[in-house]
Write a structure and sequence with these properties.
Elements (H helix, E strand, L loop, with lengths): L8 H20 L16 H11 L6 H15 L6 H17 L2 H26 L5 H81 L3 H29 L17 H12 L4 E6 L1 H6 L4 H21 L3 E10 L2 E9 L13 H12 L3 E8 L11 E10 L8
Parallel strand pairs: 1-2
Antiparallel strand pairs: 2-3, 3-5, 4-5
């Protein structure tokens, strides 16, 4: 119901101001016309009072206010008239377009234009005097011009709201992109940290366990030597990672990323670390791959995959050969690392499974394929005993069209 609608405070201000202004003009005896059927001075207060009441509904019920206001404007023409009544009707017309439905905002300007044109032509034909054109001008000023003003303001508000919505969406997308970038960078640095440090810490854990469990001075001395070497290497890797994390290091030269040419040293270090566990690591196919001048992301991913595979072999593989094979053909680099699958005597290091996840993520980022698991096959010693092996295989595209950087 209309009585339940709470008017806006601005509408209350307009209604009270209009009512007081109309009463002031009435007290001063200022009227807009004379010689009307209802010539009593007080009669003009009725349309003016009702029009002021409609100002209370200009925002909450604009269509109702416009209909009642139109009736009161017509009724005002049969009285001595009040200028404030006409001004309040113009405001109600403006509000009906601004706050009304989209259909009303389209329909009202067209209707008022037709009324303005029809009244101009009709009064000109009736009075047959040029002064009749003024009636059409006044009609347009009272109805058509407020309607057009409401359309302009409404369009500006719609455009402003659309701009605000677009700005909020842009800010939200930017925040999502920032969050995703942070998550991706954290995942990348986690992979780097795991791949760089896990190898050395695994060797330290295995040899420290051996030194504690075997009461032999030579064994303990050799174990401590290996522990020291891996500790120094791990510390160097950590320093390199910290240098990457800093915005500017002590010098401006960027830290060099490991390449496939460094695999010989990695395999040699694995042989030293795995000697006590009976592991013998060999490397095949590096000359062709190094000469191929592979893209830096591919070389880094291949190096980390080999590094993590050797770390897993050092922690879990049974005594026997560990073979690293590299092949570059048809725009694709293939990395394969095999080791003997099974239990082994001596100390071991626990695993968390993060290594396989990190390798799989690295391959996925480059759009390649990755597979790891135990299978029956030749362990590389040539005896054909069908020993079960653990195989890690990764295929990395090296052409620009297939890399996803």
């Amino acid at each position: 119901m209309l009585t339940a609608i709470r008017p806006h405070r601005d509408d209350v201000t307009l209604a009270v101001s209009g009512l007081l202004g109309g009463l002031l003009l009435w007290l001063l005896g200022l009227h807009t016309q004379a010689g009307r059927p209802f010539a009593a001075p007080w009669v003009s207060l009725v349309p003016m009072t009702v029009m002021a009441a409609m100002e209370l509904l200009r925002r909450s019920a604009p269509q109702t206010a416009l209909i009642v206001g139109t009736v009161m404007l017509v009724a005002d023409q049969f009285t001595r008239g009040n200028l404030v009544t006409i001004l309040m009707f113009s405001d109600i017309m403006y509000a009906a377009v601004l706050y009304g439905t989209p259909a009303a905002a389209r329909r009202i300007p067209v209707t008022t234009l037709l009324i303005t044109v029809a009244s101009t032509i009709g009064f000109l034909a009736w009075f047959r005097r040029p002064e009749a054109l003024l009636i059409g001008v006044v009609t347009g000023l009272v109805s058509f011009m407020p309607a057009i003003t409401g359309v302009v303001v409404r369009n500006h508000r719609v455009a402003a709201e659309a701009a605000r919505l677009a700005a909020r969406q842009t800010a939200r997308l930017a925040e999502m992109d920032r969050t995703q970038a942070v998550v991706a960078e954290r995942a990348r640095m986690a992979r780097e940290l795991h791949d760089m440090v896990a190898n050395h810490l695994s060797a330290v854990a295995i040899h420290s366990t051996a030194a504690l469990s075997i009461d032999d001075p030579d064994t303990s001395r050799n174990a401590l030597k290996v522990i020291r070497e891996n500790s120094v290497e791990g510390l160097s890797e950590m320093r390199r990672l910290i240098g990457l994390l800093r915005e500017r290091g002590e010098d401006d030269a960027p830290a060099a990323a490991p390449t496939l040419a460094s695999l010989d040293a990695l395999v040699g270090q694995t042989n030293v670390n795995g000697a006590s566990s009976g592991l013998v690591c060999t490397l095949e196919g590096t000359e062709e791959t190094v000469a191929a001048a592979l893209p830096t992301p591919v070389e880094l991913a291949a190096y980390r995959i080999v590094q993590e595979s050797l770390t897993n072999a050092l922690k879990h593989a049974a005594p026997g050969p560990v073979v690293v094979r590299l092949a570059h053909a048809d725009g694709e680099l293939t990395i394969e690392v095999t080791s003997v699958f099974g239990s082994r005597p001596g100390p071991t290091a626990p695993g968390s499974g993060a290594g396989l996840v990190g390798m799989r993520e690295r391959v996925a980022l480059l759009g390649g394929m990755f597979d790891a698991g135990a299978e029956s096959g030749d362990d590389g010693d040539g005896d054909g005993d069908g020993t079960k092996i653990w195989r890690v295989r990764a295929q990395l595209p090296v052409t620009e069209g297939t890399m996803r950087e």
